[in-house]
């Protein structure tokens, strides 16, 4: 609620660790930023983490490997898709 957020901002109460994590996720930032431990709003590793999750999917690895070995004509068709 607005009152709860106001209490956090004014130092009258503090969010639980779970709430802090949820707030960071919703605001697309880090808990360190919310706690004032850094001035960087977003983690520099967020994009890297997303890429690692994306490429660690076995089906995607196979797809991209096969795509790289495809003839030019098939690559153009895949790009259109």
Task: Sum this structure up briefly.
The protein is mainly α and 81 residues long. It has helices at 2-10, 17-26, 31-34, 46-55, 58-68, 72-80.
General description of the model:
The longest helix is centred in the C-terminal third of the chain and has 11 residues, at 58-68. This protein has helices at residues 2-10, 17-26, 31-34, 46-55, 58-68, 72-80. The protein is 65% helix and 0% strand. It has 81 residues and is mainly α. The mean pLDDT is 82.
* Residues in helix, %: 55-70%
User: What is the mean predicted local confidence, pLDDT?
Assistant: 82
Order of helices and strands: HHHHHH
By DSSP (H or I, 4+ residues per run), the number of helices equals: 6
Determine the structural class based on helices, strands and strand pairing. Answer: mainly alpha
Shape: rod-shaped
Give a short account of the largest sheet: none
Strand content: under 5%
In quaternary terms, these chains amount to single chain
| Parts with pLDDT < 50 across at least 5 consecutive residues | none
Rg over CA atoms = 21 Å
First-to-last CA distance: 44 Å
* Topology, number of strands: 0
């Amino acid at each position: 609620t607005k009152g709860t957020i106001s209490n956090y901002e004014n130092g009258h109460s503090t969010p639980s660790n779970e709430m802090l994590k949820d707030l960071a996720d919703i605001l697309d930032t880090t808990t360190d930023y919310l706690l004032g431990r850094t001035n960087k709003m977003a983690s520099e590793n967020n994009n890297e983490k997303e890429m690692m999750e994306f490429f660690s999917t076995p089906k995607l690895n196979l797809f991209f490997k096969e795509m790289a070995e495809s003839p030019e004509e098939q690559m153009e068709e895949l790009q259109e898709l």
